[in-house]
């Protein structure tokens, strides 16, 4: 999803857009395999070397509270994340060419 679309989504819900929230949301949106916090952190860190794990945890918490993503407990209690903005059919259900 483009940054402009993310900004529009955030504005629509009155959600403050920060570089951290945008990066974390975009990663969860683009990776439909239910990433956990470590996968999210390691990957957003590549393009945002100033991010800490605390930054990622805080962004995830805000995104969950605002209804953009959800936390899913799988793998014996580990928390993974999924985007709540997919349309039907979900992009994960559509095979990519």
Order of helices and strands: HHHHEE
Extract low-pLDDT stretches.
Answer: none
Number of strands: 2
Distance separating the two termini:
18 Å
Summed over residues and divided by their number, the pLDDT gives a mean of: 88
| Amount of helix | 40-55%
Instruction: Output the radius of gyration.
Output: 13 Å
Per DSSP, what share of the residues sits in E-state strands of 2 or more residues? 5-15%
Strand order, largest beta sheet: 1-2
Output the number of helix runs.
Answer: 4
Structural class: alpha+beta
Major sheet description: 2 strands, antiparallel
How would you sum up the global shape?
globular
Question: What do you see in this structure?
Answer:
The chain is of the alpha+beta class and 97 residues long. It is 47% helix and 12% strand. It is built from four helices and two strands. It has helices at 3-12, 19-30, 37-47, 53-65, and strands at 69-74, 78-83. Strands 1-2 form a two-stranded antiparallel ribbon. The radius of gyration is 13 Å and the shape is globular. The mean pLDDT is 88.
Features:
two-stranded antiparallel ribbon, 4 helices, 97 residues, alpha+beta, globular
State the gist of this model.
The chain is α+β, with helices and mostly antiparallel strands and 97 residues long. The protein contains 4 helices and 2 strands; from the N terminus they run ααααββ. A hairpin with a 3-residue loop joins strand 1 and strand 2 (78-83).
């Amino acid at each position: 999803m483009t940054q402009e679309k993310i900004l529009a989504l955030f504005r629509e819900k009155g959600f403050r857009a920060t570089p951290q929230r945008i990066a974390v949301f975009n990663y969860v949106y683009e990776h439909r395999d239910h990433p956990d916090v470590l996968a999210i952190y390691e990957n957003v860190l590549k393009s945002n070397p100033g991010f800490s794990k605390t930054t990622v945890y805080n962004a995830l918490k805000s995104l969950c509270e605002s209804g953009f993503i959800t936390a899913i407990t799988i793998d014996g209690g580990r928390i993974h994340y999924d985007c709540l903005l997919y349309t039907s059919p979900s992009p994960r259900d559509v095979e990519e060419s």
